[in-house]
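Section 5.1 Outputs to date
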Amino acid sequence: MKKTYSFIGLPASGKGTQARIFAEKHNLDLIGMGDLIRAAIEENQDENDPFINEIKKRYEDGVPQPDEVAFDLLTKKLPTLKKDGVAFDNFPFTDKQAKLLIDFLNKNKWELPIIIHIKLDPETTVERIAHRKICPQCNRIYNKKNITVCDDCGIALVSRADDNEETARTRVEHYVPKINGLLEYYKDKGRILEVNGEKSIEEVALEIEKKI
């Protein structure tokens, strides 16, 4: 039976980094909703496609995608998984997505998800995003001001189109109620682990392993 872990938190909370570390250690496929959305935009450059144009506009404005869009992208990806389970980065994002995911897991006889909530102060989120850069090859994320090249690939880091203070604050406004709703949905299911995202990457990873 495949295992399922969902890493959730505010933007720049480190959920993507921690999901990657955890997936590598436990032989899990890693699925990031942000990556799926960006791939959908890059793979469909038809300017006359209203569906893709709407996805692109929401992405650039920092507005979360509708549940149906997110789950449609996800269900196209899940059948390709080969490892012992999956670590989701930023999914599920709403209680409706959580229900859709549980229906899928039950139907395919996977384990129900363990939710790993990486807690971060909203102002820390804005500050981190202002300095965030990403490797265009391996997608590793960096938040430090003085780092310009990926440690793993040796490639110059780039900034995402949505990484600015205004968009960051918009995203926080959308994220907070969504995360609270998701935690409310799972609170009586005993499958939520909360960790302190203000700590270093190594400390957060260690706390996750201890709580798992």
